[in-house]
Amino acid sequence: MAKKLKIGDTIRGYRITKVFGPGAMAISYAAEAPGGARRIFLKQYKSPAPTVVWYGAFVDYQQEIAARVRDGKAAHYAVRLIDSFEEAWGGPCYFQAIELVENGNDLQHILDEERAVHARTGAWPLRDPTVWARHVTWAKVLVAGVAALHEARIAHADLKPPNAFLIEDPTIGSGYQLKLIDMDFSVLADRRAPWHGHQGYVGSDNYRSPEHMTRGAVPGLASDVFTCGLILHELLAGAHPYWRDDQAEYAQLVRAHAAAPPALAGVMPGPATNAEVSATLHRCLSPDPAARPTAAELRAVLSGRSARPA
Q1: Torsion angle defined by CA atoms of residues 49, 51, 54 and 58, in that order, rounded to the nearest 10 degrees
Q2: Is the CB of residue 19 less than 8 Å from the CB of residue 8?
Q3: Which of 105, 141, 147, 262 has its CA at a distance of 20 to 30 angstroms from the CA of residue 174?
Q4: Interval 37-68: pLDDT, tens
């Protein structure tokens, strides 16, 4: 049986410097690459184990996802797989060495900090024009990243604020780099996942798309648009439209398309318009995947490029 590594342990030349703790599928670590040249994020998989029937296909699938990220626009927005290997550590298991994102914070942490300020002061953060402008930028950067991923025919399949890492970067126009993380159970839009029929698709409470919750359905590119729509509601309207502690209630609201077109918290910078952005965010939450915009269409709406001349 595989065992957990400790700080100071070395495996394949990677020296463990921090243990993040076990997740549902893997144990995560920070580590130094051989020679101490760089810090990386190391994952030790609990599932799939090498004894699982779809293990070999999973490893091949990961290599294909990594190649598509590396060779396309998604390389600017998604974490890169640096190395992968099978090693015995108490027992055989699969490891991935992944680009470690630092010097920033995930979107969930950033929004929680804003809400803490709101709780202390009573002032709604989005009333501040500077905060509003920042949220608009984050929305555009997030959608650009998802659109780049989709261009590579990859569905993230577990989009949520903790999986969107933002790094301030004054050298680029947007002022922020985005890194989409936790992509080891992402789905190729043109190739069936090896775990299909063996286990369910990864998703998170309050961010599952209708496809995540429908027996026999497979999350795809439109599923990302749905969950991206939920995040954009948080960024631009100030609230998640379906958040519930009871996930059965969440599912009921999702399937009923219960949310109204959102009232945006500020004025979108032209040539984008609040009316078109609001209507498009409402379309993102359609229970019918075919009725949702594509990520590229959503990106155009946020920038105003889809506006028709009068």
Answers
A1: 40
A2: no
A3: 262
A4: 789 999 999 989 999 999 999 999 999 999 99
- Listed as own residue / partner, the contacts of 54-61 with beta carbons closer than 8 Å and 24 or more positions apart are 54/194, 54/195, 54/198, 55/94, 57/194, 58/94, 58/194, 58/195, 59/84, 59/94, 60/194, 61/188, 61/191, 61/193, 61/194
Nearest to 125 by CA among 107, 110, 106: 110
3-state secondary structure 30-81: EEECHHHCCEEEEEEECCCCCCCCCHHHHHHHHHHHHHHHHCCHHHHCECCE
Distance CA 89, CA 87 (A): 6
DSSP bridge pairs for 22? 27
Q: What is the dihedral of CA 124, 128, 131, 132, to 10 degrees?
A: 90
What is the per-residue pLDDT for 310?
Answer: 36
Query: Quick check: 91 and 1 in contact, CB under 8 A?
Result: yes
User: Alpha-carbon torsion 51, 55, 57, 60, what sign?
Assistant: negative
Pick the closest to residue 160 from 66, 266, 235 (CA basis). 235
| Chain segment 143-178, per-residue pLDDT in tens | 999 999 999 999 999 999 999 999 988 888 878 899
Q: What is the mean pLDDT of the chain?
A: 93
Question: Which structure tokens are listed for 41?
Answer: 């994020």
> What strands, in cross-sheet order, belong to the sheet with 105-106?
105-106, 164-168, 176-180
Predicted local confidence at residue 308, as pLDDT: 46
Q: What pTM was computed for the model?
A: 0.93
pLDDT value of position 90: 87
